[in-house]
Design a protein that fits this description.
The protein is an all-alpha fold. Helices cover about 65% and strands about 0% of the residues. Strand 1 and strand 2 form a beta hairpin. The relative contact order is 0.11.
Length: about 350
């Protein structure tokens, strides 16, 4: 039986059961109308995952940001290669060469019919530095390192923040007090100063970007810990948690199987914001000389090394700067999209505010 026939039958049954009012018009029961609407929408019911995916796909800034972020990541790791896998770009970021045309960029994006030089990538699309190194290869190498550091920082900070927040919210009492005072201590100390000191100590000993990323992750978990703690304090009073405890479930099972999975929205959203913050923190540290050290490079280190060339060769400053801004904005918009997808109340509040402003 088709959907139209079902709707006709529902309308017919509603009309048959409706009563005639004093004015001769039929009076339809509100309950009958609601039942008809529910029956019509039964075939359109969606799971929670489908609703989240649909809301995310309807968030245009998040979709555009995802495309930009994927493009930058693929370009960085495929162009010069990674982990021994060769890339499609034939120049080495560590080898100097002869300066051509003063090291000016050969990239052209303006077609000839608009008065430009045509669409062309050229031999050195981002130009060359003082020693003749290909700047495109250098920037791609720096982008690789900055992305790796940001992802590791986001993962470490998310793991530590989620565990500490969950334990503090579940046990409460003195456990909560101790963990939250430790969290407050990390918040009070200026992050950039503490990160600079620890990063310098770790960098002098190992010189590894993985050690630097791990240290930064140990310092940036506080915000997520507070958010997860608040969610757990609310969730631990639910009936399913009491049922699990009554059945003799272990504390670890209650936390990891029943509580943390229900805070996945908060965790995922704040993980994206942690990655965006890590990009900017690594840039600041490398700019000040406390982050990535030569012969390795990062976007912040490139800006620091070529800041004096801003007046005569500004492309050495602008290329890494623009990529930093693009990555940070893309990750932030992606986080906004995930937040609206996991918490539709945010979208409803925004729509109500917009309606009030228009009225």
């Amino acid at each position: 039986m088709s959907e139209h026939q079902n709707n006709d039958e529902l309308r017919g049954s509603s009309n048959m059961q409706s009563e005639m009012g004093p004015d001769g018009h039929p009076v339809v029961s509100l309950a009958e109308v609601e039942d008809a609407e529910l029956a019509k929408n039964e075939s359109q019911s969606r799971s929670q995952g489908q609703l989240i995916r649909r809301r995310f796909l309807n968030h245009k800034p998040a979709i555009i940001s995802s495309v930009v972020l994927v493009f930058i990541t693929v370009m960085a790791f495929s162009s010069i290669g990674f982990a021994g896998i060769p890339g499609w770009w034939d120049k080495d970021y560590s080898k100097a060469g002869e300066l051509i045309n003063g090291g000016a960029p050969t990239l052209s994006l303006l077609p000839t019919w608009l008065g430009g030089s045509g669409l062309a990538f050229g031999e050195s699309p981002f130009g060359q530095d003082n020693t003749g190194k290909d700047y495109f290869a250098l920037v791609m190498r720096g982008t690789q390192k900055s992305i790796i550091i940001a992802v590791i920082v986001g993962m470490v900070a998310t793991f530590i923040g989620a565990i500490i927040g969950a334990v503090a919210g579940y046990f409460r009492g003195w456990v909560d007090e101790v963990l939250m005072r430790i969290t407050d201590l990390f918040i009070v100390i200026p992050l950039l100063v503490l990160a600079a000191v620890l990063a310098q100590m770790v960098g002098n000993k190992s010189g590894s970007i993985f050690a630097l990323a791990f240290v930064l992750g140990l310092l940036t978990w506080t915000g997520l810990a507070r958010l997860v703690r608040g969610e757990i304090l609310s969730l631990r009073e639910r009936e399913y948690v009491a049922a699990a405890q009554a059945m003799g479930s272990k504390t670890s099972r209650v936390i990891f199987k029943h509580l943390l999975p229900n805070t996945v929205g908060v965790i995922v959203v704040n993980a994206t914001f942690a990655i965006a913050g890590a990009i900017l923190l690594e840039t600041s540290l490398s700019y000040l000389g406390f982050g990535v050290q030569p012969p390795e490079t990062s976007l912040g280190l490139l800006i620091s090394q070529y800041q004096n060339a801003f007046t005569n060769r500004p492309w050495l400053f602008w290329w890494p700067g623009m990529i930093i801004v693009a990555i940070a904005l893309s990750v932030n918009f992606l986080g906004d999209g995930l937040r609206d997808a996991f918490d539709p109340r945010q979208t409803r509040k925004a729509k109500r505010r917009k309606t009030k402003e228009l009225s």
